[in-house]
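Hi R.,

Here's the chain you asked about this morning:
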Amino acid sequence: MRVLGIDASLRNTGVAIVDLANGSARALYFGTIHNPSSLRSSSCLVAIRDRVTQLIREHEPEACALESVIYVQSYKTAILLGAARGAAILAAAENGLPIYEYAPTRIKQATVGRGGAGKNQVAFMVRALLGLTETPDADAADALAIGLTHVRAQEVARMGVPGAKQI
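And here is the predicted structure, written out as tokens:
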């Protein structure tokens, strides 16, 4: 199973391709789509959509997994985050991928073992679990954690236990 994990944000969208074969997960790709602050929001959305589409065509994942909508204190931040998620979801949907979402606490629980884990803990555990030689930046680490959460949830679902919410 191959999954595209996405941690959407307007300026720094984490993306990762996680592959599960023979019970072992590995990272095929991870990185961050950096959009400079000088770039208009609309151009950032196009950049996210284009890069996600490119990753789908290069790596041919079977599914896309994202972090579900989180509570933010600023309505402006919420709108921008929703727009970035929308650009990523659109790219996945246009390419025929089923799309799943996971709560942030579930991702942290699945990766670190506790739902209140910090970003550094997630990055450390992702590096250890995937045998990476470098610690990914926070956004890429979150995308890897989302991908890992999905492949594990699908393994559990195959055993008859319900899991992810498909959108």
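One quick note: Residues 2-166 form a domain with the Nucleotidyltransferase; domain 5 fold (CATH 3.30.420.10).

Cheers,
M.
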